[in-house]
Give the backbone structure.
Amino acid sequence: MKTQINFHTTREEALLISKIITRAGDSDRMSAHMDISACIANGCPLKLQEWLDAPDFDFFHDFYGIKRHIDRTTGTLRDCFLPRFAA
């Protein structure tokens, strides 16, 4: 039986995710939003405000790390990647 990926976030989380994507300048906003939401909802909650306020190096480490390591079938992070702003 195939389990469905969860994308549930709170309204506050969704707003912060949108701000993070804007700061990152990602043109594929929907995919980025889904990746970050899936990360949060499937086992790796994030300190979103701290991430948004982080210096560029740390900010982009997590942004591109999540994009690279998210398993889009389960919503979990692969390859032992742990974001710096994991809760």
About this structure: Residues 11-69 form one domain. The CA atoms of residues 70 and 77 lie 5 Å apart. The first helix runs from residue 11 to 24. The chain has four helices and no strands.
